[in-house]
Amino acid sequence: MTVEETPGRSLARAHLSQLIELFGSDGCLRISPAPEPDATGWAPTPDSEGGEPAEDE
Prior knowledge:
The radius of gyration is 20 Å and the shape is elongated. By secondary structure, it is mostly helical. The chain has one helix at 7-23.
């Protein structure tokens, strides 16, 4: 016997899958020490001014 899911339940299941990827089944947040490379090959460059935002006067 098959059970069809409603769109809301399907969306909730997809969201739950994303949370399990982030936190795992033990509840610990999974982080990576370095960001994954961008598929486009573009990477932001550091600010030459020391990273401080420019102030408009």
